[in-house]
Amino acid sequence: MKYTVTMEIALPRERVVQLLADPEHMPKWLRGLVLHEPVSGVHGQVGTRSRVVMQTGQQEFEGTETITRREPVDLHGIASEVVVHYEREIVGKGMWSAARERFTETGPETTLWVSENEYRFSGLLMRLVGLLMPGAFRKQSLQHMQDFKAFAEHGTDVREAKG
């Protein structure tokens, strides 16, 4: 299963990628995050493997995230014509996924975020979920992007949200 979601954020691209790369901010915008801890490497750097635990309702998901691409490595002083790439793979029980994020400067104070997502399922239950509810994965990706946008633009913290 593959899909792409996009979002425009009313902040300079350099600020957007710096906020996204900072692990201290993850709980503020990544709804359902229980744990995100590097097992090897340095958070956000290529090759880093992290243990990730997410909670959605009564369902808990645990997997291993590996950063597969981050260009440029230095997120300061990025030339306006450079497209920032941040890619990762997550492996969990019955599932493999890849997220390929691209950040393009669309103006001095605006950033276009394009997120290409791919999922592969190996277990029978996960295959059924993928077949019966493909829209749920896209909806969740879009929710994470909207939550990040609200955090980046307005300081909104998902932990303080009602409902």
UniProtKB/TrEMBL annotation:
SUPFAM superfamilies noted in UniProt: Bet v1-like
One Pfam family matching this protein: Polyketide_cyc2
InterPro entries: Polyketide_cyclase/dehydratase, START-like_dom_sf
Source organism superkingdom: Bacteria
Sections of the chain in a coiled coil: none
Name the record gives this protein: Polyketide cyclase / dehydrase and lipid transport
Originating species: Lentzea albidocapillata
Highest classification ranks of the organism: Bacteria, Bacillati, Actinomycetota, Actinomycetes, Pseudonocardiales
